Write a sequence for this structure.
């Protein structure tokens, strides 16, 4: 620490959040969170307990449902107003309530550092106006903290990834927390960060997703038992806690159970809740919320006068950005891998700590973290055309994922009577299978059958030391097999293929398609290789037959406009396709269908 720090005490960085707050400090150039009993996040909740004592954090959260009149949450939403907030038999101003949280963070920091802490950099949303910023200063003052600087949350998050960068960069910071959402476009130039625009919804957060899931589960329970769990505050609270936990688990697991015993009763009999939620069902529920956030991204970009292509980095902040659908939509929108290596719950506090260290004259760089340098996934069939199955690389752990990483992805077999699948593990960034690197392959023997039995869940566990464990499970039967790939990470780092590939691409710029065509196996090879490439598969033969029937109808309709040899060929192929469809023979349907499709293309 510098002389100044020794004279005046350390400066901490504080993220005073709507749902949670965090305090951090820089040690040896790297920011670290100051936790208490292993907890980094302090719930931003205060209360008066039944003994009349002030409680903050987890203790206050625990009494929120039982004593709502003696507990205050989300005070950040009221900063800037001086309207009194009732707490037990007293009333406090919003800065006074915030001061209680800040006081707790200050004590936590003093204990962790073994010296009094009285100076802080505090973050606020970019959209906070002057009265809200002033209220934050007053809260700090009441907590015995001198505010060295108030900085914008997106500025802090940007520092985490780009402190020390002198280049000009334009960065989108997407912050999706528990109670609020906002996206900011910031410009970094010569070490100075400027917020160009900010847009969001202070009433949209992870809490809305919990409530949506709660409604879904409660509706199903009501249909089954005729009891509305939302009618009893206790039952509703228990269900809400369960739904929030389920939501978190769905970020890495394909499907989760929600179980609550004795959650209600009917005619003197206890009722138990047992529900299974698949990630896909959850995603359908929350999609409208995610779309609203994407619209905000477009607005923020428009307000900043920039297009998506002018954005150099996308930084994810807030616990709700761990939801795979959020990442997926952002990946589609920005056509780039987001920066999310730093825990999204801690990024703002870590950035505030970096700013604090800079004010203190310490030299800092961006945060060092362990991430995967490449995307890992499997080969999967993404559709069926008359060229045969369309195979593609299906990512499971995306590049830049913090380590250790664990993700699951569900697939379906290609046919109901399929007796095995091949799990072909790949590493790389290209959708085309052959342009990625094969890192392992194994077969999973199945108990054939349609319905549930077609579902295969593939789990990837990647440890810090680079060991990748791949587990494939036929969920309906519990049949599973795993493959352990040692040194997966060091293999990646030693991997020179991408550099070589880049050099080749530079050389052959513009002739990419030629290389692709040469590399692609012929349709015959695809069909012959069918058994081997049947890992994850979406369409069933029935959808292939439907496509073929549609093609046949198109061909019949085209007949009057075709003459000569083409007309004869068309007639013959239509007859052959009809026969293949009647025989329900997928290989024949695929082969004749492809020829017919070719012919239609030429006669059009
Ligand atoms: P924050 O306000 O940034 O602390 O974010 C808290 C929100 O993130 C809450 O709604 C949490 O339920 C949500 N959250 C935390 N972890 C996860 C996770 N793994 N998956 C989905 N949501 C999460």
């Amino acid at each position: 620490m510098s002389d100044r720090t020794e004279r005046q005490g350390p400066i901490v960085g504080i993220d005073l959040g709507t749902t949670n707050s965090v305090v951090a400090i820089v040690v040896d150039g790297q920011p670290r969170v100051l936790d208490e009993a292993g907890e980094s996040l302090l719930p931003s909740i205060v209360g008066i307990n039944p003994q009349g004592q002030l409680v903050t954090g987890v203790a206050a959260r625990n009494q929120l449902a039982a004593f709502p009149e003696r507990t205050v949450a989300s005070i950040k939403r009221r900063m800037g107003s001086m309207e009194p907030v009732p707490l037990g038999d007293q009333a406090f101003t919003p800065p006074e309530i915030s001061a209680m949280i800040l006081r707790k963070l200050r004590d936590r920091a003093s204990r962790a550092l073994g010296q009094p802490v009285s100076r802080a950099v505090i973050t606020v949303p970019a959209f906070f106006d002057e009265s809200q910023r002033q209220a934050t200063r007053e809260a700090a003052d009441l907590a015995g903290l001198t505010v060295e600087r108030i900085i914008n949350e997106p500025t802090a998050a940007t520092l985490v990834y780009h402190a020390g960068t002198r280049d000009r960069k334009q960065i989108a910071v997407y912050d999706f927390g528990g109670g609020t959402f906002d996206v900011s476009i910031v410009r970094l130039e010569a070490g100075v960060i400027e917020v160009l625009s900010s847009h969001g919804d202070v009433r949209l957060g992870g809490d809305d997703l919990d409530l949506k899931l709660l409604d879904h589960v409660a509706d199903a329970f009501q249909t089954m038992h005729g009891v509305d769990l939302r009618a009893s505050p206790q039952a509703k609270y228990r269900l809400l806690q369960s739904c929030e936990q389920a939501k978190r688990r769905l970020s890495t697991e394909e499907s989760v159970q929600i179980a609550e015993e004795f959650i209600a009763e009917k005619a003197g009999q206890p009722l138990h809740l047992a529900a299974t939620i698949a990630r896909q069902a959850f995603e359908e529920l929350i999609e409208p919320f995610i779309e609203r956030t994407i619209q905000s991204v477009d607005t923020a970009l428009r307000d900043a006068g920039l297009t998506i292509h002018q954005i150099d980095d996308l930084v994810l902040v807030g616990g709700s950005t761990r939801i795979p659908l959020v990442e997926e939509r952002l990946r589609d929108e920005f056509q780039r891998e987001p920066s999310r290596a730093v825990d999204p719950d801690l990024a703002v506090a870590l950035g505030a700590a970096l700013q604090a260290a800079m004010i203190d004259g310490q030299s800092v760089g961006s945060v060092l973290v362990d991430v995967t340098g490449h995307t890992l996934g499997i080969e999967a069939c993404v559709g069926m055309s008359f060229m045969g199955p369309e195979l593609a690389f299906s990512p499971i752990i995306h590049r830049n994922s913090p380590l250790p990483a664990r993700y699951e992805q569900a697939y379906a077999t290609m046919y109901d009577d399929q007796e095995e699948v091949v799990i072909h593990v790949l590493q790389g960034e290209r959708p085309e299978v052959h342009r990625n690197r094969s890192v392992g392959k194994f077969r999973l023997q199945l108990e054939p059958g349609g319905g549930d039995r077609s579902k295969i869940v593939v789990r990837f566990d990647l440890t810090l030391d680079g060991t990748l464990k791949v587990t494939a499970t036929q969920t309906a039967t519990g049949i599973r097999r795993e493959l352990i790939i040692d040194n997966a990470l060091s293999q990646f780092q030693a991997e020179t293929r991408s550099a070589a590939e880049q050099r080749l691409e530079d050389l052959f710029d513009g002739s990419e398609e030629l290389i692709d065509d040469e590399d692609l196996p012929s349709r015959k090879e695809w069909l012959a290789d069918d058994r081997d490439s049947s890992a994850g598969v979406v369409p069933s033969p029935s959808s292939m037959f439907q496509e073929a029937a549609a093609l046949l109808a198109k061909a019949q309709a085209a007949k009057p406009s075709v003459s000569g040899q083409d007309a004869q060929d068309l007639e013959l192929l239509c007859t052959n396709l009809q026969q293949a469809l009647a025989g329900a023979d997928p290989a024949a349907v695929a082969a004749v269908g492809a020829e017919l499709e070719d012919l239609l293309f030429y006669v059009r």
About this structure: The pocket of adenosine monophosphate is lined by residues 17, 19-20, 177-178, 205-207, 244, 247-248, 251, 318-320, 322-323, 345 (CB under 6 Å).
